[in-house]
Each structure stands twice: as C-alpha cells, then as structure tokens.
Amino acid sequence: xxxxxxxxxxxxxxxxxxxxxxxxxxxxxxxxxxxxxxxxxxxxxxxxxxxxxxxxxxxxxxxxxxxxxxxxxxxxxxxxxxxxxxxxxxxxxxxxxxxxxxxxxxxxxxxxxxxxxxxxxxxxxxxxxxxxxxxxxxxxxxxxxxxxxxxxxxxxxxxxxxxxxxxxxxxxxxxxxxxxxxxxxxxxxxxxxxxxxxxxxxxxxxxxxxxxxxxxxxxxxxxxxxxxxxxxxxxxxxxxxxxxxxxxxxxxxxxx
Amino acid sequence: xxxxxxxxxxxxxxxxxxxxxxxxxxxxxxxxxxxxxxxxxxxxxxxxxxxxxxxxxxxxxxxxxxxxxxxxxxxxxxxxxxxxxxxxxxxxxxxxxxxxxxxxxxxxxxxxxxxxxxxxxxxxxxxxxxxxxxxxxxxxxxxxxxxxxxxxxxxxxxxxxxxxxxxxxxxxxxxxxxxxxxxxxxxxxxxxxxxxxxxxxxxxxxxxxxxxxxxxxxxxxxxxxxxxxxxxxxxxxxxxxxxxxxxxxxxxxxxx
Amino acid sequence: xxxxxxxxxxxxxxxxxxxxxxxxxxxxxxxxxxxxxxxxxxxxxxxxxxxxxxxxxxxxxxxxxxxxxxxxxxxxxxxxxxxxxxxxxxxxxxxxxxxxxxxxxxxxxxxxxxxxxxxxxxxxxxxxxxxxxxxxxxxxxxxxxxxxxxxxxxxxxxxxxxxxxxxxxxxxxxxxxxxxxxxxxxxxxxxxxxxxxxxxxxxxxxxxxxxxxxxxxxxxxxxxxxxxxxxxxxxxxxxxxxxxxxxxxxxxxxxx
Amino acid sequence: xxxxxxxxxxxxxxxxxxxxxxxxxxxxxxxxxxxxxxxxxxxxxxxxxxxxxxxxxxxxxxxxxxxxxxxxxxxxxxxxxxxxxxxxxxxxxxxxxxxxxxxxxxxxxxxxxxxxxxxxxxxxxxxxxxxxxxxxxxxxxxxxxxxxxxxxxxxxxxxxxxxxxxxxxxxxxxxxxxxxxxxxxxxxxxxxxxxxxxxxxxxxxxxxxxxxxxxxxxxxxxxxxxxxxxxxxxxxxxxxxxxxxxxxxxxxxxxx
Lengths: 256, 256, 256, 256
What we know:
Number of domains of chain A: 1
Oligomer: homotetramer
Radius of gyration of chain A: 19 Å
Order of helices and strands of chain A: EEHEEEEEHEEHEHEHHH
Distance between the termini of chain A: 32 Å
Helix content of chain A: 25-40%
Shape of chain A: globular
C-alpha cells in the first residue's frame, strides 16, 4: 500500500462535471452541506481514497461492521441544463502536514480523470462571535470566477480570512491553480465554536444559485434541530458532571 | 534496514490457523490476554517484527540483557478439532500515524504467509466508569462473523465505540477487509483509567468459546492479584510523595 | 509533485549576484528588511519554491484571489560598481524538521544556478529585554567574511547566540559551507517579544554599507509607525476583551 | 543530500578498536565523559555525520564561525596492550523517532568500517533523588560481556532501568545485536534533574578499568567545578528574575 490510494468503485458517465468538496473543518459547514447534498441527490459513490495520513482507525456502523477512515467521492448526473456533479466527502482530513498536500493532489487527479470544469470548496469562516444571519464569503483561484460568485451575493473582503484557508478547501484552489483548474471557496460565517447547520444552509442556498438548481433544505433543517438537541443534551450532561465530585489522581492512575 | 522488517525465526506447520492480536491499548486488556494465552499454551515464537515506528529504545530483561522494542508472533498447533493459533504480542504500538498502517500491513502479510482463515483482535472499550461485571462487545469486518460472535453472547451496539477502534485492533479489520481476510474485534468493557485484568479475563472467556477450547485462567487471576498489589503500592507511594515537600524550581533546574 | 519544487518564473541576467535571505523569524527582522528591499528596488520575481513542508494553506490577496504558501526569490540588476542582488522572501518557514533542510538546499540550488558569490542572511537576536538602540551582530561560515562585517561595525561575540541560529538563516550558512559558498548572518538585537521594525532598520543600514549602496528607509520607517499603530490597537482590543465576560465552557463546546 | 550522511574526514589505522558512545542524554553523563576523553587523549576527528533528523540549526564557535549540528567520531591509537579507541560525540540526538534508528545504523556502519570489536555506550540512570556516591549500572546485548563488567564492580539489576534505554545508547546495543556486534551500556546513577559531572566521573573511572588504561580526571573535576559555578550563577539570576516584576500579557504580545 502506497501512502494514498485512489480506488474507482463505480462508473458513471458525467459530462464536464462540477466538483464540490465538503471535508470536515470550521463549524463542519462543508461536511454538513456535502452530506446533505449526497443524500438529497441520492448520488452514487464512485471513488474511495484511502491514506496513511488519515487517522489509524476504523469506524463502526449501525450493524457493527467496520470501515477504514477514508475520503469518498460521489457523482450525480443532472438534467440537461445543469452541470453534472461530483461530491467529495469524508470524516477526516490528513493528520500530517504533508498528507494534506498528498490527499488534495489525489482529489485533483480524480477531478482531471472526470474532466472537471470547476471546483467549489465549502467551508466556514470563523468570526469568534455568534452570528444570527450568516453572510457567505468567497475566494477564488481565478478572477473570472469572482464575478459569477458576486452575482449570487457572495461577498469578497480583502485578505480574508486573515489566516488564509487551511486544508483541502484551500489547497484544492492553490494546487488546482497550478494545474489550470478553476476553483472557488464558498465560506459561511460562523462563530467557530460549534457545528453550525444554519451557516451550512446559507452556504447551500448560495451554492444552489451558483449551480442553477434547487436543493431542498428540509432534511438539513431537521438535522439542524437534531444537532441543537444533541448540543443541549451534552450541555446538560456537562453541567451534571460538573456537579459530581471529580475523581482524585489516585482513581485515575493508569499502569502501563 | 527498511522502516519495518519481518523476520521468520522459527518454523511450525500450522493448518489454516486463526490469528489473535493483543497489542497494548485501552486497559491493556488485549495485551494481558494474549500474553496469558502465549504462556498458557506454551507457544513458540515464529516471527519478530522490528520497526522504526516503534520507540527508539531497548528493554532490559531479568539478566541485564537488552532487546529492541519489537512485535512478536507466536504459534501453537492444537488438537484436531480445534483451529491452530497465531498470537500477536508486543510492548508497543507505532508512535507515528503512518507506522500504524505499515505495522498492521506487515502483520497481515504474515497472516497470509500462514494462510490465516480469520483474525480476532482483542481490546478494551472505555466507558469512563468503573465496571463491576464487564460485558464483551464486538465489531466485524464481515457480517458473517457477527452471528458467530453473537452465539457466545458478544454484544453489538450501533456506532460503538463512538470514537472508532484505533490502532492495530482496528486496522487489522479495516486493512484485512481490503485483502478479503475476515476479522473481528472483541472488546471488554473497562473504565479506561487502569490496567484491567478482570475485563481481560472476560474477553478470554468469550474467546475460548469462539475458538472452542478451554483456557485456564488461573495464572491470569494471579496476575490480576499482582496488579492489584502493584496498584495499591503505587497509591501508597504517591500519597507519601504528596506529603513530602515538593522540589523547588531551582532544585529541578536542568542545564542542557 | 515532489516534496519541494523550484519554478523559474522570470529570467534576469545577473552577474555574480549577492543573495540576501529574509524569511520569518525572531522579531520578523529579516522579513521586514527583505520585503522593504524588494519594494524599494522594485525587484522582479524570478523564482517560486513550493513545498509540502510549508503550511497546507492558501493566502487570500486584496482581490480575493488565493495563492499557495510559497517562498519567492526576487532579483535586481544594479549599477556597475555594485553587486547584483537576489532576495529570498516568504510568509512561512518549514513546519517540519526535515523540511528546513530541504528548503535551504533548494535555495542553495538556486544560488548556484545564478552563480551567487556570497549569501547574507538577515535575522534577529533575542535578548529578552527591550532594546533602545539595537546593535547588529554577525556570524560567518568562512572567517574571510568576518573582516568585511567588522569594518561596518558588526559585532562578533563568542558562541553567540547561545542557542545557535535556527532555520534558513542558519542552514544557508551551514549547508552553504559544505558547498563552498561563503555566507554570513547579520542579526539585529531585539527583545524577541515583538515584531521589531526598528531593529530591522538597523540591520538594513548595516547591510547597505556591506553592499555599498544607499537604501532609503523612509517606507520602512512608515511601516514601523503602522506596526506601532497596529500594536496599540491590538493592545486596546485585548484590554477591552479582558473586561468583557469570558465565554463559559458550554458556549465554547465544539461538536465534531 | 540524503537524510543522513557519513563523511570520513581523516584516516587513522586502528586495530580492532573499541567504540565508546557519549551523546547527550540523562544528566549529560555520557556527553561529559566522552568530551573529556577526547580532550584527554588528544584524539583525531575521523568522521562527521550530518542528518536532517538533527535540529535545523548551526552553532556559533568562539570566532563567530558557524557549523551545522552534527555527530563526530574521534579516534586514538593507544599503546600495544590496550585496545585502540573510537569515540562518538555530538551536541544533539535525533529530533524524530525514525532518525534515532537511522543515525544509530550509520554509527554502526562506521563501527564495521573500522572493524570495531566491542561498543560501550555511556549514559545516566535517573533515580529521581539526589545521589551522593553514584553507583554504576550495566546492560549488555550479549551475556559474555556481563562478566567483564561485573569484574569492575558494575551492577546489574533486573528490568532496570524500568523504562528501557532510550536513544543511541540503547539502539547501538539493540541494532548492534542484529549485526552480531557485542555492546554494553554503562550507566551512572543520577537524579535526572541536573547535568551531573560527578556521576560522569564515576562512569569514566569504571570505563578506564574495563579498557585497562588510566584516564586523568583532573580536567573533568575542574569542569565539574565550572558547572557548579554556572549552576549557582543561574540560580542567582533566576532568583533575581523572580523578584523582578513579570512582563504583562501586553508586553509579551507578538505580532506575526
């Protein structure tokens, strides 16, 4: 096994598709959006990417069946007047510096294999404060894309985000530029402290305008409510735990 | 020396053996179990795996003799109606992300060399609370194994453990699946704060039912008592130390 | 893509140029100096170095256009009696041990490509205390350079800085020595706690004497004032934030 | 440049020499000992080992001249009845796990090049308490060496040190064993909190009995006094600093 392996698991004949990436990141905005989109479009898994730069673990599913941490790319043929779509999803990003580059290059290899015309990466833009009505910001690797995004009310702010765009959402633009693949990052404002399905919806709404087709957000709204419930449950548990006596150093002792 | 090296140190003619892995992990449940099994069966060491991903150190034995940190695989021919066994043991797992994958792949290479039919990995499942009568949980890389485990009262719980199964116990399932090797992880409930020979016994009892032969647990019970003694000794020392005056910053000063 | 890639983006016919390096480091002294020099000389970008050892991110410019983290080398033909100049700039150094070596070797490859005669690396020398009138210290990889530096009042102090010179400013001397390229490091005294444009000016003033041409420092003085303003703004914000109630652990909770 | 490079810088005709290693470690006992021995024997530098696993920095000498972090091997022809000696010294060990293995393998390559008959590694054995009269402990990679060490009153204690022997002092034994090179580690008791020239002298005294020649310890005793002085100076400064008002968070602010 080489460090990072691409496996084509299903075939689908896509025409100059648009690739959309939503790996985990700030506020899980990209991940929530892409997983919703894959569900909503009932897309087919076409590619699996395994990497020694992903965490060394398996996840257990509903049946007790396990699977390696991996990145998956789904595809969907759409109606005639809308671009076909590839969607990049996963539970993890690389855990090492070099792995971020390697995994993004592999995703770009796949995009070239499918003749991808444009890439949109989805992410969050941490403001440090709770945002009621999140705005959506953009960054591009080719100024020709800026106009398209501005038309659907995506904002551009100089040198923003100040810390740059980290991980696959940034590298697909940066490394894509070197290969001549046009790419833009669409970022929803978010506090940066919590999973943010509200900002994720704002990003998806904007994306649907860019792509020119409707995306039902109902299920995502329900997810938002689920997440709200989980958060308040955890808050409750945390408060209960804070009221319990804490284990002493002796109780916690671990003999290796 | 390449990063990870497999050395076959003894020969033994095993027939479609079952491989059992018990490297260090949560509660040292797998390690306690496998080391007991190797002792109890008086198994022969067949393979040594050396790796630059293991800690850069030697361990000193009773005689003052040293040996590189390594992973060892022992083998045992059993009676006719029971599967032969390979047992994977060691004092360490990889210290780097990539090394976890490399070492697990090497263990799988060995399993293929011996025509292994099935792999069982042993581990702990941290609950965060002290567990009086530990239950035993399972996860599989092929649903056909689930039935076998459920027959001997191994529980399956969806998406559990929630954080996935980390290290060799997880990767042997995940990477094994890609090679078509069936594998299951058997996990004993444990607090996660201490070495847990009680939970280890529960895992071994279950394993003996899966394999269809008796394992005397007497020595492991004695070990459990030894561990209890060590723990209470350390507790005593810790308490004594906490009563001693602590060294000041000056005393601790280190000139590099 | 290999780990580190050198791209020659423009041509310029330079005659035995001097190379000056100013990557980020203590007090950002080198970086402030080199960026000022590139502006002041209106130099042309000749080389871009991309590396998987730089942070996995893109930076966003004034237009919302992104670019991979990279190291850039600019060039300038000067008047007849002054050496031509190559200038090494960037927003980052390697994030891994090995990458420091690899990137410095690549910079040395470029220096050989251009027939560089001498290298000057610019840096800061942390004293731990605020310095009103920063002195300038030197270190060399060939004693013949020491005299030249002492002539323009650069100080030499034995085994100083005590911790050695870390990163590209040190490695270009150390690795350069093995290739027979003469190199010196010019360090401005600085507290080590802040970006220090005053010490950066002291370094540039000294450098201009070494190179034998005038460098207008006006713009850098303005930058110094800008930095002062930014610092006092941040101080103000920090104080305001310290007066605000802090978010509780619940508010900060992040659901992954 | 490959990751680790061996350069033979001088020739010396040694007959089945003994190799002694003293890289930095617990209490700097090995380093103090080997540097003293090199001085005392007026040995010649024969080999330099450069590695991308050593810190990315240069050290500055008395003249302001810099040199890459490296490992050096010195040699000395001795009188007829005593074994010739190779001495391994340096200011650093590897900063990465894998590098420890790589550097130790390179040192073993050199030992084979010189037909080394035996290796002694020098180190410290941390007890956590101040030790007035340090004992000297041993560990071997071949039991035939144990007797030789016991004859000169080196102690052996089972499974000691409990945490194993980390770094080159351990790996030269472990990796040497696989090459059939006999090696022993000689460890002086030390608190583990300070550079310990007293324990270093104890180790050297023992070593001189093993090797069968006298080593004047005068200079090392003087060094011990120097170190004592440095320690008390630093203590004084630390106390003064603790009495000074500490810089506030604002003063320490760093603008990157």
